[in-house]
Write a structure and sequence with these properties.
Strand content of chain B: 15-25%
Order of helices and strands of chain A: HHHHHEEHHHHHHH
CATH architecture of chain A: Orthogonal Bundle
Number of domains of chain B: 2
Shape of chain A: globular
Oligomer: heterodimer
CATH class of the largest domain in chain B: Alpha Beta
CATH topology of the largest domain in chain B: Rossmann fold
Number of strands of chain B: 18
Largest interface: A-B, 44 and 44 residues
Strand order of the largest sheet of chain A: 1-2
Helix content of chain A: over 70%
CATH class of chain A: Mainly Alpha
CATH architecture of the largest domain in chain B: 3-Layer(aba) Sandwich
Radius of gyration of chain A: 20 Å
Order of helices and strands of chain B: HEEHEEHEHEEHEHEHEHEHEEEHHHEEEE
Structural class of chain B: alpha/beta
Helix content of chain B: 40-55%
Largest sheet of chain A: 2 strands, antiparallel
Chain lengths: 297, 413
């Protein structure tokens, strides 16, 4: 049974496409994380919960009779302000402390968000319907939900938009300057406080987009945020900070790896395999770094 | 400052003392009240089903009290329940059970929601020899540990979908079938899986896909792609509400054609409401359905229960509420037969329970599970855009014919 994928090679096409499409979506979440990690040196444990909140915004629109796809525009706008407010309320008090404090703070935020969402939206698992239909390839043997293609397309669009914004706009330049050296940027007149707030807002907005996409491709529940945090954390660890192409490639790579692990090792080892890969990469990196250090000596 | 601390200490000790005196006066039977205790998930991830459970309990308490209460030793008593919120957390549930028994002096317990939490509480009630009637823990492992004080009004998890395999074999002209299955890796779903393995062995059927879905997983695309490739006769999925919703979403999106699809938790997931016509023909395991013809004198029939519950709480009762109400009927019956508040006498009476309730027949097996009530299967059927659950198996209770095989996606509008 394990070798089904070799008996029916068309499954490889299916697995690859599934993995890549999902990977792109995860890469978008990871990009937000990489951005604010790089700029503010904060690991945001609440990342996944921001995603789910964004999803609930789209779901609420769906309940009101608006097509949930509009969520990819509405949700980031609302989430930007949520992120901004979070920064002003909590994050600005921990931003220059050590990493451990910020992890604790965002962990707290995650719990508060989960309970609030549970309180407001209830503990039922919910889905929003896009009715986008299906794309069939190779005589029906490969089927791709259009909602997933839509999700990947929107993710790419937002990612490209953000890269251009970071390069061209004043705020984008300020963010990059702060990321490189916050003190120097401050001396040269960059209002780092504002930059931090904006960065956190942008991250939350990206989560909002991803959440809206998840509401039409997967399922929503107040307590499913953590897997998204973990996944984006892994992508960032593999890709490194502030490197969008690397984040995209590592996102897709992990998506692919996961799908193939499912076929070859079995579904129960799917997530375990990804964690094994993470351990392997971390060990390998350390090994490489230590070699470099020797050389420097 | 010192004064303040002193005042505070006095204040705290005063509160503690008052509380202590209150809790010591609380006992198993208070005046005309029989006090039951329950830890229940009012917040956290099980909170919706926790509330269904609590509503079921409350509905039965009110009904029994209104209709003459419980007759013990020629005197009529009323039920009262002390609830604590276990936050959907097993550790907390065990602590609260301990608190109910030791501090509040509760001598009879009602179960929490879910197998996991029941598993956490059962060792505590067992240790203090407190009879517990539970209505929401179906995991088989609850009934194989030799617990003497645990009684469950519901059918154990391994029976959930066994009927479905029998049905598939029957539709295949009595010949063995090819089964594809995907189960989440939690106690309940894995028990459902064991039931399928038994049924497969019994009928000589072959399991060609046997995927165990990790708990964090919300994407079943890989499993479904495999299903598409190997074309089984029946696909079985169990992974709580998330599993049911994900399965229908992706089966419809990936146009996976299977002749028969059997699942759990369709009711709790509000499958036909959330997915509409996409969920049509799905076969779902259920503990109870309002159309079954069981009867009792408190709630009348299932249909009447459905109506009264809707009036009281504003929504149709899921089976989680019905089975919870039944738990109190069982307690009442046992108290009256024991004619005593002695815990061991009540336990012995529970053990010999044999009764019919609107929810089904109840008789406890040696492990404490209900052996008198079969699981039922309903099928989602749609007319236009409104979908309904129709009972199709077992034949004795079936109100509609089982639609088989499921039409191909290309033929479905």
């Amino acid at each position: 049974m394990d070798l089904l994928i070799f008996q029916a090679p068309i499954l490889m096409v299916q697995a690859s496409l599934d993995g890549i499409l999902l990977g792109i979506l995860f890469a978008l979440i990871a990009y937000g994380m990489a951005l604010q990690w790089g700029v503010m040196n904060i690991i945001n444990i609440a990342q996944g919960d921001l995603v789910i909140l964004g999803g609930y915004i789209a779901y609420t629109m769906y309940l009101m009779g608006i097509h949930p796809a509009w969520g990819v525009i509405v949700s980031p706008i609302i989430m930007y302000f949520v992120g901004w407010a979070l920064y002003k309320l909590v994050i600005n008090k921990v931003v220059d402390r050590d990493l451990f404090i910020s992890i604790l703070a965002t962990f707290g935020i995650a719990i508060v968000f989960q309970q609030l969402m549970n309180f407001v939206f209830g503990a039922d698992v919910v889905v929003a319907q896009s009715e986008y239909g299906t794309t069939m390839l190779f005589d029906n043997s490969v089927t791709l939900p259009n909602s997933k293609i839509f999700a990947a397309f929107i993710s790419v669009l937002y990612a490209i938009g953000l890269v251009i914004y970071m390069k061209k706009s004043r705020l984008g330049r300020a963010i990059r300057a702060t990321a490189q050296n916050a003190r120097a940027a401050k001396i040269l007149g960059v209002d780092t406080e504002k930059v931090y707030a904006a960065t956190f807002g942008i991250n939350a907005a990206l989560c909002g987009v991803a959440g809206a996409l998840i509401s039409i491709t997967l399922t929503l529940h107040p307590y499913v945020g953590l897997p998204y945090t973990v996944r984006s954390f892994m992508i960032v660890i593999v890709a490194g900070l502030g490197n969008l192409p690397a984040v995209a490639i590592s996102g897709m790579g992990l998506g692919l790896f996961e799908e193939f692990a499912d076929y070859i090792l079995g579904t129960e080892f799917r997530i375990g395999a990804v964690f094994m890969l993470l351990v392997f990469i971390l060990v390998y990196r350390r090994f490489k770094l230590s070699k470099k250090r020797e050389y420097l000596k | 400052m010192n004064k303040l601390v002193k005042l505070f200490t006095i204040f705290i000790s005063a509160i503690t003392l008052t509380l202590a005196s209150i809790s010591s006066s609380f006992a198993k039977v208070e005046g005309e009240y029989i006090v039951l205790g329950s830890a229940i998930s009012l917040t956290g991830k099980y909170s919706s089903n926790g509330v269904h459970t609590q509503n079921g309990y409350n509905m039965a308490v009110e009904r029994i009290n209104k209709m003459g209460g419980v007759n013990v030793g020629g005197k009529s008593y009323k039920f009262e329940i002390i609830y604590y919120d276990d936050e959907s957390n097993p550790k907390r549930a065990a602590q609260l059970a301990e608190r109910l028994i030791k501090q509040d002096g509760v001598h009879y317990m009602l179960g929490p929601y879910s197998s996991g939490l029941t598993k956490a509480i059962a060792p505590v009630t067992e240790k203090y020899k407190i009879p517990m009637v539970e209505a929401n823990g179906a995991s088989r492992s609850l009934f194989t540990k030799g617990y003497k004080y645990l009684f469950a009004v519901l059918s154990p998890a391994n029976q959930y979908l066994e009927v479905a395999i029998d049905l598939a074999v029957e539709k295949n002209g009595g010949k063995p079938v090819k089964i594809a299955q995907a189960f989440e890796q939690d106690a309940f779903s894995q028990d459902v899986r064991l039931g399928i393995l038994d049924a497969a062995k019994r009928t000589g059927s072959e399991i060609i896909i046997d995927d165990k879905l990790p708990k964090e997983l919300n994407d079943m695309a890989a499993t479904l792609a495999k299903v598409k490739a190997v074309k089984p006769d029946v696909l079985v999925v169990s992974g709580h509400t998330k599993g049911a919703l994900t399965a229908i979403r992706q089966i419809s999106e990936m146009k996976v054609d299977v002749p028969m699809l059997a699942m759990t938790h369709c009711d709790a997931a509000k499958l036909s409401k959330q997915h509409g016509k996409k969920s049509e023909y799905a076969l779902c395991a259920s503990q109870w359905h309002k159309n079954l013809s069981y009867k009792d004198k408190f709630f009348g029939s299932g249909k009447k229960y459905d109506k009264d519950f809707k009036k009281e709480f504003g929504y149709a009762p899921p089976y989680q509420s019905a089975e919870s109400s039944a738990a109190l009927l069982v307690f009442k019956d046992a108290f009256e037969r024991a004619n005593s508040f002695d815990r061991d006498k009540v336990r012995d009476a529970l053990k010999t329970t044999e009764m019919q309730t609107f929810y089904g027949n109840i008789k406890f097996g040696p492990g404490g599970q209900n052996v008198a009530k079969p699981m039922i299967l309903f099928q989602v059927r749609c007319k236009g855009d409104t979908c309904e659950n129709k009972v199709v198996a077992p034949t004795k209770w079936a109100s509609d014919k089982f639609y088989h095989p499921i039409p191909k996606w290309s033929e479905r509008s």
